[in-house]
Amino acid sequence: MSNAKYKLTGFNFIILWFGAAMSIAEIMTGGLLAPLGFKKGIIIILIGHVIGTTILIMGGIIGEEENLPAIKSTRISFGLYGSYLFSILNILQLVGWTAVMIISGGRSLNLISKTLWSFDNTTIWSIVIGLLICVWIALGSNGLKKLNIAAVILLFGLTIVLSFVVFKNGSLFTKEVVGDISVGTAIELNIIMPLSWLPLIADYTRNAKSKKGAVMGSWLGYFIGSSWMYIIGFTATVVFDNTDMGAIMMAANLGITALLIVGLSTVTTTFLDAYSAGITFLNIFPRAKEKYAAIIMAVIGMVIALIMPIEQYENFLYAIGSVFAPLFSVLFTDYFVIKKQKSIEDDVIVNFGAVIIWIIGIVLYYIFIKFDFIIGTTVPVMIITSIIYAVLWRWISKWKYVKKSQKSCQM
């Protein structure tokens, strides 16, 4: 939409990304950092989010300047089929998030119901959440916007209540938490969360009224929102010795209100994951029905949630980092450093050179993660992947499979 009245302002972006960050997943991830202790934990959350949010915004800049959705922008470096591959990876990520949110929400609801009514069945609660997400999708966005807003308001209210509860507890500043986590791992867990939004941010910034508004609004909105959610999860876990949101809210004596907050916020947040997965599916199969594709994604996510142990959540986050860190490192190097092209070459089916460097980046990620660098794994992987691509691009840039009458692989 080119009409200026439909464009998003800086304030719109602040609200958009603050709301996107207001998620139980962010609170739950913050809880993993509790062994760091209060002072070190807060510092690392802020440092990690400065790095992660800045990387996220680079993807948004491409969307604003080129008016391209995020997945389509990968065609700049990887070609048409390359964008299809990353569409599949994004679908897997979003279905994975759907599963993680369903099982974590189901466990939280089960803990609350077990405490209140002695009803103990995580599977039933997970199915209930999954079915409600399908209903949300089937009914469409009309009439549900107010409920989505209500969910954000409820979760916002919850964070204020939890902030008051945990910060008034004197033990927060001195209590030691059982467990261990390194500084490098902690920073990585802060960087990975904004990284998971890279395949989506340009979908919004391409509709910005100005680049400054898109950059500053998105950066501030996500940084403030996500940092706050991490801090809430981190501090609540220190005080209550539990990363489960249901347990934390019951410890805060929220009672049945906790059930409503967890249920509604989980459904509305996870609905976005499943719906975005359906939309991404249409990038590969444009004739599919958007609503049906999204429902199928929700069902797949629900099935995975019923068989996947939530203990694998941290490994899921690392999988996101391993795939998307080198992917966007290649794109950023092409776009911001080499600047050999700033638009899509319609005849390029796949750029084998870029794909090879991306695969090298994935391998580097899993090698580097064993060294536990103090700055985390994402940053060194992105820097080294970028250097390799920048050094080799003149040689490998001709390794393309193209349309028309050209040879399959131009050398």
From TrEMBL:
Signal peptide limits: none
GO function terms (MF aspect): cytosine transmembrane transporter activity
Subcellular location: Membrane
Gene Ontology annotations for the cellular component aspect, listed alphabetically: plasma membrane
Protein name in the entry: Cytosine permease
Keywords: Membrane, Transmembrane, Transmembrane helix
Residue spans crossing the bilayer: 12-36, 42-63, 84-103, 123-140, 147-167, 179-198, 219-240, 246-272, 292-310, 316-337, 349-368, 374-396
Gene name, Swiss-Prot/TrEMBL: codB
One Pfam family here: Transp_cyt_pur
Recorded topology in the membrane: Multi-pass membrane protein
InterPro entries, alphabetized: CodB, Pur-cyt_permease, Thia_CytX
Organism: Clostridium tepidiprofundi DSM 19306
Similarity annotation: Belongs to the purine-cytosine permease (2.A.39) family.
Lineage: Bacteria, Bacillati, Bacillota, Clostridia, Eubacteriales
